[in-house]
Design a protein that fits this description.
Number of domains: 1
Shape: globular
Strand content: 15-25%
CATH superfamily: Flavin prenyltransferase-like
CATH class: Alpha Beta
């Protein structure tokens, strides 16, 4: 399975790391935004080199010659995790000024699965309208909202819950959580 992963500058880097760790064995294409590089320094015990090592292919966010910027490059899904509100707003407005937003535009125009994982809260009416617009256009909006029916004992358990749901959405089997 070919999966494009964008890490934007929102809080929630542990979700991205755990997601990539669970995609081993799949063909992954990673883009880390400039803002995400800064957030990684604040939020993660992992460095950028480790995160990049989890992906099969890595691209800079300004590399418009990357294959994922073209509709002729076939991939199964794109996941932006975490997805900043700025990135959601750009995608909703059709702004493709970074590789992440360009690959998202490709996903939309080619009718490929696009999943955005916002972590922000509270949300403004504008944020909600942008997410609604994306959802109406086929994007899966999967907020990083852990469920508590699994009785998490740690932050890692809560991260596992969200990542398990994202993996389910892209069709990657996992046993990160106890299922009903």
């Amino acid at each position: 399975m070919r999966i494009v992963v964008g890490i934007s500058g929102a809080s929630g880097i542990p979700y991205a790391v755990r997601f990539l760790e669970n995609l081993r064995g799949h063909d992954t294409y990673l883009v880390i935004s400039e803002a995400a590089k800064k957030v990684i320094q604040y939020e993660s015990d992992e460095n950028i080199e480790y995160i990049r090592s989890l992906a099969s292919h890595n691209y800079e966010d300004d590399d418009f010659s990357a294959p994922i910027s073209s509709g002729s490059f076939l991939f199964d899904s794109m996941v932006i995790v975490p997805c900043s509100i700025t990135t959601i707003s750009k995608i909703a407005a059709g702004i493709s000024d970074t590789l992440i937003t360009r690959a998202a535009a490709v996903s939309l125009k080619e009718r490929r699965r696009l999943i955005v994982v916002p972590r922000e809260m509270p949300l403004s009416t504008i944020d909600l309208k942008n997410m609604t617009y994306l959802s109406e256009n086929g994007v899966i909006v999967a907020p990083a909202s852990p469920g508590f029916y699994t009785k998490p004992k740690s932050v890692d358990d809560m991260v596992a819950f969200v990542v398990s749901r994202i993996l389910d959405l892209v069709g990657v089997g996992n046993d990160l959580i106890k299922r009903w």
